[in-house]
């Protein structure tokens, strides 16, 4: 029987180098702390094993990818089993020769993989050259069944798309999880940085509101220099958060420090909220055909 209350944890970290073993150990230490606090489901940030290598297009960076199963899934599966938790992780997947994905992997109190999700929306912007590295996901928007409920796991750029959140919720997701790596271009003004962060938090809280489900977000923090001469690098803005099913902030980390969050989520309240705000009942599915088009001419 699934719990009606779930304690969820988030790990927000800075990454200093590509030493996977060291970074995994640091993640494991924070996971252990959250497990000691009673967290049964814990989220790690996007691509937590290494530096954010997408600041440039470099074929040598493909050496950072690994298969599933592989060393990362072995390590984090053992961690989930050790602490008897559901653990949401992220890695650079080598699916085959010349074929790579940005993939979230979920473990359910076991070394066995409970499910995975391959990032569907792939950005290609200055400092975020992800299309060079990642093939768009081909697994659709399907929640992962676990002992604590159905987890709608999406990844970073997916968080801007209401369609992704809606499809996960329509498939029965009890919670939405967003492992993330986003930060500021240091050439932007303070006002622009504030607008960008505000938009990022608002859109994700809106997914909670529109679908009446809690949203859990883990973002990187810290500065990562660019390998490109003259490029200012990225200041990851942290501010990981957990929101309830009406978008209310339940916990939030700061911008510039590593942190953990732990929150008791009342899962039964989700049903109560959906009864008061019956968005799914009132959707005009007979009038939405053109949503599958790129644009309305």
Automatic annotation (TrEMBL):
Keywords: Acyltransferase, Hydrolase, Transferase. PROSITE patterns: CN_HYDROLASE. It comes from the Bacteria. The keyword Transcription does not apply. Gene3D superfamilies: Carbon-nitrogen hydrolase. Residues 6-267 form the CN hydrolase domain. One of its GO terms (molecular function) is N-carbamoylputrescine amidase activity. SUPFAM superfamilies: Carbon-nitrogen hydrolase. One of its GO terms (biological process) is putrescine biosynthetic process from arginine. This is Acyltransferase. It comes from Alteromonas profundi.
């Amino acid at each position: 029987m699934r719990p009606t209350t779930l304690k969820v944890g988030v790990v927000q970290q800075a990454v200093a180098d590509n030493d996977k073993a060291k970074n995994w150990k640091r993640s494991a230490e924070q996971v252990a702390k959250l497990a000691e606090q009673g967290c049964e489901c814990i989220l790690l940030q996007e691509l937590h094993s290494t530096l954010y290598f997408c600041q440039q297009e470099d074929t040598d960076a493909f050496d950072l990818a690994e298969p599933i199963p592989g060393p990362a899934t072995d390590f984090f599966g053992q961690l989930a089993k050790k602490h008897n938790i559901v653990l949401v992780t992220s890695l650079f997947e080598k699916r085959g020769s010349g074929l790579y994905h940005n993939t979230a992997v979920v473990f359910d109190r076991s070394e066995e993989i409970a499910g995975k999700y391959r990032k569907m929306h792939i950005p290609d912007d200055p400092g975020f050259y992800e299309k060079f590295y990642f093939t768009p996901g081909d697994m659709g928007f399907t929640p992962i069944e676990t002992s604590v409920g159905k987890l709608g796991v999406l990844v970073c750029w997916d968080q801007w798309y209401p369609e992704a959140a809606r499809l996960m919720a329509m498939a029965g997701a009890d919670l939405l999880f967003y492992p993330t790596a986003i930060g500021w271009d240091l050439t932007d003004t303070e006002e622009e940085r504030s607008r960008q962060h505000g938009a990022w938090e608002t859109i994700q809280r809106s997914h909670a509101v529109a679908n009446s489900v809690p949203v859990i977000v883990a973002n990187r923090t810290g500065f990562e220099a660019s390998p490109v001469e003259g490029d200012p690098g990225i200041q990851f803005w942290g501010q990981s958060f957990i929101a309830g099913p009406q978008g209310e902030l339940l916990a939030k980390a700061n911008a510039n420090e590593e942190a953990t969050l732990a929150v008791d989520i009342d899962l039964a309240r989700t049903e109560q909220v959906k009864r008061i705000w019956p968005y799914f009942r009132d959707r005009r599915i007979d009038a939405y055909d053109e949503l599958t088009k790129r644009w309305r001419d």
